[in-house]
Design brief:
With 669 residues, the protein is α+β, with helices and mostly antiparallel strands. The protein contains 13 helices and 27 strands. The C terminus is likely disordered.
């Protein structure tokens, strides 16, 4: 007979059944709760979507009305800008006309093509005449560089590329002509020989180029030095060169004939210095003439004619191993060079210049600047000479003082302040506490600071903004960043490439800011650098008192202007004046879900909402609540050439993409 179930087993079964029922009921309740939340979320999403739709519709209507309201003003200013630009062009053409220059009109393709073609077809002349012609070609290149810079400022990129193509042809032609003139000199050395000691050394100079040639005609081991006082060059002679019948040619061009359009790690300052070893062809032999019944019938000069007639043959230094194709540097002494730098080269006091040689081992057309093999670099001021750059080089080829392309990036801070009618001062701080100041006027700008002697021409003569930036790079200060520079200045805590503003946003912001320049002080915002590619900020305050002292960057009356790009086609791009709470923001970051966010010191999110703001299309209308009628009328009545100069300068410098973050950015990525 089986045992009876105990009371404990029955209670346990009942307990399990009760728990199962409770779990079933709890699951049903949870399912009902989740369904209720889903429906509530759907309703909320629908409500928010409808709210956003209504807001977008209302704001789109408002913006269309704003555009229509300002259309007459924009049209009037656009026409006035064309008139002002035409006047400046006419003035420039008249100045060129009365200068009686022999240079072609850079704006006329026919004149440029004719100038280059005729020079190509002109037979080679003596060295002095060729140097005059290459000087003229250098003047044309300088004019074309100005035209290309101005075309870039007007966003006429095809025109700028056309000017670059002309410059490339001229640069190649300059070297070709000088090679042929040098070859002719080496072929006919007698007129250049000093018959007292049978030496050969010749030099010539023009404003933008220097040329010198020393020919080893004696193989005299006591010769230790080649010196060209009129060229500002001095070199010693390595023993390996003394023992060969070679020529050493030195050429300095103030324009870069090697890498003007190469986007590598460096750009050249002070021009390019060529030091090359050239083969010396066999000199003509004299053969006595035999003419019957003539006592002294003279002599014949016997000269071998080869396929290389009219061309120079360069010798590699250091030599190339025929078997391996590698440079032989073991046992090859370097050459010491003393070079008096041009006075307009800016090298900050206390810094050591970097010197490189043009390395074409990857093939012609694939060269790059290389600083290996150049040592003992010193720069000193010598009385009666100037700044003398001394160095040892293992490579005799094109040499240059190099500057890093991103040495000035990212910018530390900037501020733009009105100085008078159609005049403003733009100040920008670079790394190393290096401050630069510019005076911007109608269609032009002028350097105010620093007071370096090398920059004196830029302080004396106003230039168009793009031409000013080009000249600064010519002197050694590159303020024109490119996208590739972002990779070089990024840090583990700040990815500059990821934070680059879209070019559309950059252009929109710079155009908007420039319209406010006549009556507002505008400066960088510490939030901007880490907002990402679709949002931008700057600080602004009305400044109509030209006699007031300059504002500081921490002026408490500054307000924040916020630009937002449209993340989708159905969204709006707009600008708005940030609410007062935004002025407490101390940092910004990118959220994958919410986009750009701004926090105060306590970590509170003070980001303006994405929906519900009263937006504007033009910053000009966004700032009306902090501006009076005086400021508004000054902006409306200002010279379009002035605001265009501000726009061009800021857009070329990409101030909203290449500004350093003030604080360590945070991210929830």
């Amino acid at each position: 007979m089986p045992p009876k179930a105990g009371k404990g087993g029955k209670k346990k079964a009942e307990e399990l059944a009760r728990k199962a029922e409770e779990e079933r009921l709890a699951a049903l309740l949870e399912e009902e709760r989740l369904e209720r939340e889903r429906l509530e979320n759907e309703e909320e999403e629908k409500r928010l979507a409808e709210e956003k739709r209504q807001w977008l519709e209302m704001e789109a209507t408002r913006m269309e009305e704003e555009k229509e309201e300002h259309l007459p003003l924009l049209q009037r200013r656009a026409k006035q800008l064309i008139v002002e630009q035409g006047r400046r062009e006419e003035k420039g053409e008249w100045e060129n006309f009365i200068s009686c220059t022999h240079l072609p009109d850079f704006g006329q393709d026919s004149e440029l093509s004719t100038f280059i073609t005729l020079w190509e077809e002109t037979p080679d002349k003596d060295l002095e005449q060729v140097l005059k012609e290459t000087q003229q070609a250098c003047d044309v290149i300088e004019g074309l560089e100005k035209m290309a810079a101005q075309a870039m400022g007007r966003k006429e990129f095809e025109l700028a590329e056309k000017f670059r193509n002309y410059m490339t042809r001229l640069r190649l032609l300059i070297r070709f002509k000088l090679d042929h003139a040098s070859a002719a000199m080496l072929q006919h050395l007698d007129p250049y020989l000093d018959h007292k000691d049978n030496t050969c050394q010749h030099s010539l100079a023009t404003p933008l180029q220097r040329w010198g040639m020393w020919v080893n005609t004696t193989k005299n081991v006591r010769i230790k030095l080649i010196e060209y006082p009129n060229l500002g060059l001095k070199t010693d002679i390595p023993r390996t060169i003394i023992l060969q019948t070679v020529a050493v040619r030195m050429m300095h061009f103030r324009t870069d004939l090697v890498s003007p359009f190469v986007s590598g790690d460096y750009f050249t300052i002070g021009g390019v210095l060529f030091i090359e070893c050239l083969e010396v062809p066999e000199r003509p032999k004299q053969i006595k003439s035999h003419v019957p019944d003539v006592k002294d019938s003279g002599v014949w000069n016997y000269m071998p004619i080869t396929e290389a007639q009219g061309e120079v043959a360069r010798q590699s230094y250091p030599p190339i191993d025929a078997a391996t194709g590698q440079m032989q540097t073991v046992g090859v002494p370097p050459m010491k060079v003393d070079w008096i730098l041009p006075a307009d080269v800016l090298i900050p006091e206390g810094t050591s210049p970097n010197i490189g040689w043009w390395d074409e081992r990857k093939g012609v057309g694939f060269g790059e600047w290389n600083d290996e093999g150049i040592t003992e670099i010193t720069l000193e001021e010598r009385e009666g000479e100037g700044r003398v750059l001394s160095f040892l080089t293992m490579h005799l080829t094109a040499l240059a003082v190099l500057q890093s392309r991103w040495a000035c990036f990212p910018f530390v801070s900037w501020i733009l302040q009105p100085m008078g009618p159609n005049k403003a001062m733009f100040s920008i701080e670079l790394k190393g506490n290096f401050l630069m100041k510019f005076e911007i006027a109608a269609g032009e700008c002028r350097l105010l600071h620093p007071a370096e002697e090398s920059l004196r021409p830029l302080r004396e003569k106003p230039l168009p903004p793009t031409e000013m930036l080009r000249r600064l790079k010519y002197y050694g200060v590159n303020l024109i960043p490119g996208d590739d520079d972002a990779d070089q200045i990024s840090t583990p805590k700040w990815d500059c490439r990821a934070m680059l503003k879209t070019r559309e946003l950059e252009n929109r912001v710079c155009a908007g800011v420039s319209a406010l320049a006549p009556a507002f002080s505008i400066c960088y915002s510490h939030l901007n650098a880490t907002l990402g590619p679709l949002d931008a900020t700057c600080k602004i305050v009305q400044s109509t008192d030209y006699q007031a002292p300059p504002l500081s960057l921490d002026e408490p009356t500054f307000r924040t202007l916020l630009w937002r790009s449209a993340p989708t086609e159905s969204d709006l791009e707009y600008v708005c004046l940030g609410p007062p709470a935004l002025e407490a923001a101390s940092q910004s970051y990118i959220s994958h879900e919410l986009g750009a966010r701004m926090l105060d010191k306590e970590g509170t999110d003070v980001t303006p909402p994405l929906v519900g703001l009263e937006t504007r299309y033009f910053p000009f209308t966004a700032v009306r609540e902090i501006a009076d009628e005086t400021a508004i009328s000054r902006c409306e009545d200002s010279s379009p050439a002035f605001t265009e100069a501000v726009r061009t300068l800021m857009e070329s410098m990409r101030l909203f993409s290449f500004i350093a973050p003030a604080l360590t950015p945070e991210s929830d990525a």
